[in-house]
């Protein structure tokens, strides 16, 4: 059997690989049309708003017609992820590894902000679609010029990936309008000051007594993201230094 025939049908379509022709009429639309319809539904109502029947209705076809393209809802998620992220950013070769992986992480974060429903899709297996593998390759390329082994580069890239997903998950449901954010922060600080007394929660109280620096006051989310990413990269830098000296 041809190895390509062993690939799931949805991956054959995403890679442009022709599998065995299926019986029935000629397909009326492309896999990318399904992706756009599903993404439109998810952007408007979250992942829960996506179903085979709703995607079919968005395209003006019957639910059964979708099964000529995707075998199950999990396949639909693969198609959505492939088109929601599109291609990875082009990393500036003039930047050092920290600059390149920072640009990669920020682009990844921006993709999750545009489509927060991505975080609701369960990760059941490593990526195999074209754009998803291109993102992985781009993240690995960011470490070119370092002494990290291929496995260490993969682990470093995954560490950054996990950090970005984690911070995006924490802020996915928070307010995004600046005025609403400021009011929510003010109210939270007021209530926290009342509840987190120094005798019971000295660590929390100490953070409330210290004013935010200029960076945090301007954009708390961006400053917090930058602080965490810098700390993660400092750890990778230590690993790189250790590798060079051993």
TrEMBL record:
SUPFAM superfamilies: Homeodomain-like (SSF46689), Tetracyclin repressor-like, C-terminal domain (SSF48498). Residues 28-88 form the HTH tetR-type domain. One of its GO terms (molecular function) is transcription cis-regulatory region binding. Pfam families: TetR_C_1, TetR_N. Residues 51-70 bind DNA. InterPro entries: Homeodomain-like_sf, HTH-type_TetR-like_transc_reg, HTH_TetR, Repressor_TetR_C, Tet_transcr_reg_TetR-rel_C_sf. Keywords: DNA-binding, Transcription, Transcription regulation. It comes from the Bacteria. One of its GO terms (biological process) is negative regulation of DNA-templated transcription. This is TetR/AcrR family transcriptional regulator. It comes from Kribbella sindirgiensis. The lineage of its organism: Bacteria, Bacillati, Actinomycetota, Actinomycetes, Propionibacteriales.
């Amino acid at each position: 059997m041809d190895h390509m025939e062993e690939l799931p049908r949805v991956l054959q379509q995403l890679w442009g690989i022709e599998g065995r022709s299926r019986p029935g009429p000629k397909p009326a639309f492309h896999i990318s049309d399904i992706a756009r319809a599903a993404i439109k539904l998810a952007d408007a109502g979250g992942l829960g708003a996506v179903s085979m029947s709703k995607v079919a209705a968005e395209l003006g076809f019957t639910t059964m017609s979708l099964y000529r393209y995707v075998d199950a809802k999990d396949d639909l998620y693969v198609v959505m992820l492939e088109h929601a992220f599109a291609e990875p950013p082009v990393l500036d070769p003039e930047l050092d590894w920290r600059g390149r992986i920072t640009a990669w992480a920020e682009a990844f974060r921006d993709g999750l902000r545009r489509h927060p429903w991505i975080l609701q899709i369960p990760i059941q297996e490593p990526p195999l679609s074209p754009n998803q593998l291109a993102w992985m390759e781009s993240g690995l390329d960011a470490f070119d010029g370092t002494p990290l082994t291929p496995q260490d580069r993969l682990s470093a890239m995954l560490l950054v990936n996990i950090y970005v997903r984690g911070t995006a998950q924490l802020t996915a449901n928070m307010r995004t309008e600046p005025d609403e954010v400021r009011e929510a922060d003010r109210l939270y600080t007021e209530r926290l000051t009342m509840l987190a007394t120094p005798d019971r929660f000295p660590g929390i109280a100490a953070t409330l007594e210290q004013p935010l620096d200029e960076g945090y006051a301007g954009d708390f989310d961006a400053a917090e993201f930058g602080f965490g990413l810098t700390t993660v990269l400092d750890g990778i830098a230590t690993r790189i230094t250790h590798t060079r000296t051993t």
